[in-house]
Amino acid sequence: MKNRKKEGQSGKALAIASVIGVAAVAATVFAAYRSTVNRLIPTGTSGGESTWVFSSSSSDVPVHNNVSGVPIESSKPSDKPKSSSSSGASEPAEEVNKPVKSVEIGNIIPVTGEVSHPFSGGELVKSETLGVWKTHDGCDILCDLGTDVRSMSEGTVKEIKDDPLWGVYVIVEQSNGLEVHYCGLAKELNVKAGQQVNQGEIIGKTGETNQCEILQQPHLHLGVKSGSEWVDPISVVDKVI
Is residue 105 very low, low, confident or very high in pLDDT (cuts 50, 70, 90)? Predict the structure, then answer.
């Protein structure tokens, strides 16, 4: 009898303990639920239903998550210099000694007239005088004998030659990088080697010294080089005298 009584009392104690444990768990869950609900704030409605987000003002939300391996951004001001304003950063510094381009200085036509034989651009053309096929590395501008020949741009007289075929010709090394050959001039020139010339300054007059084109009408044979390449003289002319 005594053993049965003890067993009954033990069973009641276990039942009471179980009830107390369940109640404690329920209280804990309810408290967590209330804490979560208190942190929710409405942000608006979507399709008739309210939208909720967690409030960041709750004291149980840490400012930083100290996860290993992930650095925390410092609130201290950066030591790096701040960039200048967008307008200042995008505008490059003014170039003081930028290279001069031929378009900026400009080139004039040395004589006024019709181009009878244009620049061949490396193609072979038949010479009326020599009767052979050859490139025509300049252009022939028709003009009367004795016509003033003017410098296309400012520069220095690099060389003066009296060639058996091309006759008397003057080479001017221009400030804009072009090298200009004035061929078939009269022997009496207005310039000498090493002389500085201005744009439009008279170099000499057209003559009959150009033997390789002597059967053509009177003209100036004009050749222009850019670096080591012959270019079409008319393509660099931007002003007509």
Answer: confident
- Give all strands (DSSP E) within the chain, no chain letters: 40-46, 49-54, 115-117, 124-126, 133-135, 139-142, 148-150, 155-163, 167-174, 178-185, 196-197, 202-205, 219-226, 229-231
For 44, the 3-state DSSP assignment is strand
Question: Backbone phi, then psi, for 139, in 5-degree steps?
Answer: -135, 150
How far apart CA 83 and CA 222 sit, in angstroms, is 54
CA distance 40 to 43: 10
Instruction: Locate 164 and state its tokens.
Output: 């058996």
Mean pLDDT of 192-200: 97
- Closest among 150, 198, 156 to 178, alpha carbons compared: 156
The two three-digit tokens of residue 80, written as one number: 């790096």
Residue 100 to residue 107: CA distance in whole angstroms: 13
The total of other beta-carbon atoms located within 10 Å of residue 128's CB is 12
What mean pLDDT comes out for the span 209-214? 97
List pLDDT tens digits, range 5-44: 455 555 555 556 565 655 555 555 455 555 544 554 454 4
Alpha carbon distance 70, 65 (integer Å): 9
Tens of pLDDT along 106-141? 999 999 999 999 999 999 999 999 999 999 999 999
Which pLDDT score is estimated for 12? Answer: 58
User: pTM for the whole thing?
Assistant: 0.58
CB atoms within 10 A of CB 204: 21
Closest by alpha carbon to 222, among 239, 238, 240, 210?
210
